[in-house]
Amino acid sequence: MSKTIAQKIFEAHLVDTPFANTYVLKLDRVFCHEITTPVAINDLVERGKDKVFDSTKIKAVIDHVTPAKDSKTAAQGKILRDWARRQNIKDFFDIGSNGVCHALFPEKGYVRPGFTVIMGDSHTCTHGAFGAFAAGVGTTDLEVGILKGVCSFREPKSIKFVLNGKLKDGVYAKDVILFLIAKIGVNGATNCVVEFTGPVIDNFGMEERMTVCNMAVEAGGTSGICYPDMKTVDYLWEFIKDEYKTKENALKDYSKWTSDPDAAYEKVITLDLSDLEPVCTSGYKPDQVKKVAEMEGTKVNQVYIGSCTNGRISDLRIAAGILKGHHLADGVRGIVSPATPKIYKMALDEGLLDIFMDSGFCVTNPTCGACLGMSNGVLAEGEVCASTTNRNFNGRMGKGGMVHLMSPATAAATAIAGTITNSPLYK
């Protein structure tokens, strides 16, 4: 019987099927951060279950509010920090070595094709870019994952996007995923794995694939997923070179984690993106999307470049390339947050941070803070932010604030103009 990549991963990790359409899977990784994990830790402690299934398969980081901004966030960090020490979790990233989880963990080589990954964070779907099944889960599932190394899921139904054509200059991965979310709506992929395939995805590097998979959840998807290829192998090579004699051997092994040509899907959506233009969100939902050209002239108070969606080195290079020789418009403040210390250092060494600072941007440490309105860029009521983050819900970056999601290129051009504008104007 033909299978999708998700069905193959489920079959390879199956532990039990206690109920109809319920699959208990063995986990390869459990990721943790200081916002959602302390609740699970405290409950396990109260139940007398203060232990972990495998300290080498659990990776933890303080990333959402770092450094702590108040006593509450300091307490959350302390719970995670003390737990990591108690449980001998060596891969714990504290202040100074920490970065945004969905950028840091792939960068460390923790995700491989065919893996099962959970985290108490909805954007865990990012890691599907490597051909893994990666899903955000609630506190109870996280507790079970930490304690027993298993998690239950429904039958893995899949939706497949086949993305044909060649993107125009000035159109990026963020434009692609926003366009796709608008196409199917915020509930269009509910309880489904979303496969991203076709020439557009093939031409993307791993960072761009992570951007696309990162926002699968904004269409309701359980996980986004791309098939592993030589780009996947190249990205992981420093971590897997002792496991395989050659890259070709690694690719041959990883190639089993692809869908069969005649696998069954809930739906297959084939699109030609050759004429796609830069887009951005216009309202308070990720599927409320318009062409940037239609939003021209929309005034902004703040521009934010960073997050697990678009805080990687390729994103910073694109934005800096547009900003070079220009300055923020009067009345606009700019914030850039490289997603990990490695990215920060690369941007520093390449002179990108000089460009950002010369143009008037504030460069902050790696953190999720502004994305969810917790620190390092919270909006005041009535303010508007052009942002490379992933959510534009009402109040997401601050009570009464408006967030327009866009690519780093559009965000950089908007910073110069002071109003939403297309990046080709600054090429």
Question: Could you please describe the fold and organization of this structure?
Answer:
With 427 residues, the chain is α/β, with parallel strands linked by helices. Helix content is 33%, strand content 19%. It has helices at 5-13, 37-46, 71-86, 101-107, 139-148, 173-184, 199-203, 206-214, 230-240, 247-254, 292-295, 307-310, 313-323, 341-349, 352-358, 408-417; strands at residues 14-16, 22-26, 29-33, 58-61, 92-93, 116-119, 133-136, 150-154, 157-164, 192-197, 223-225, 267-272, 279-281, 289-291, 302-306, 333-337, 361-363, 384-387, 402-405. The strands form five sheets. It has a five-stranded parallel β-sheet with strand order 5-4-3-6-7, covered by helices on one side. Strands 17-16-15-18-19 form a five-stranded parallel β-sheet. Helix 2 (37-46) crosses helix 3 (71-86), helix 9 packs across helix 10 (247-254) and helix 13 (313-323) crosses helix 15 (352-358). The longest helix has 16 residues, at 71-86. The protein is globular, with a radius of gyration of 21 Å. The N and C termini lie far apart (51 Å). 53% of the residues are buried.
